[in-house]
Amino acid sequence: MSTLTQKGQITIPKRVRKILNIEQGDEILFEISDKNVIIKKGERKANFNKYIGFLKNKDGHTSDEIVRQLREDL
């Protein structure tokens, strides 16, 4: 059993975290069915997803220039 905090947060019990194989940083999905809530582990997105489309406007740039820009953005 968990208690809801003033900020609307709860602690997921260790047994549940272990069964769902969830850890810090994982996304949690909440599905509501009637008056029940189903908790599921979300799919972790790869970190490189934030760079999708980055190369779209890089025509004419060398790979070194592109890598330098990527490193500056980190």
Which key phrases capture this entry?
2 helices, two-stranded antiparallel ribbon, 2 domains, 74 residues, elongated, alpha+beta, Pemi-like Protein 1, Chain: D, single chain
Low-confidence stretches: none
Kindly state the number of beta strands. Answer: 2
Average per-residue pLDDT, rounded, comes to: 83
How many separate helices? 2
**Which outline best applies?**
elongated
The biggest beta sheet is recorded as:
2 strands, antiparallel
End-to-end distance, in Å?
Answer: 40 Å
Strand content: 15-25%
Class from secondary-structure proportions: alpha+beta
Kindly identify the CATH topology of the largest domain: Pemi-like Protein 1, Chain: D
* Rg (C-alpha, Å): 20 Å
Task: Give the spatial strand order of the biggest sheet.
Answer: 1-2
Give the helix level as a range of percent.
10-25%
Helix and strand pattern: HEEH
For this structure, what is the CATH class of the largest domain? Mainly Beta
Structure, briefly:
This protein is α+β, with helices and mostly antiparallel strands and 74 residues long. The protein is 24% helix and 16% strand.
Description:
This protein is an alpha+beta fold. It folds into two domains: 43 residues, Pemi-like Protein 1, Chain: D; 30 residues, no CATH class. Helices cover 24% and strands 16% of the residues. The protein contains two helices and two strands, in the order H-E-E-H. It has a two-stranded antiparallel sheet. The longest helix has 11 residues. The model has no long low-confidence stretch (mean pLDDT 83).
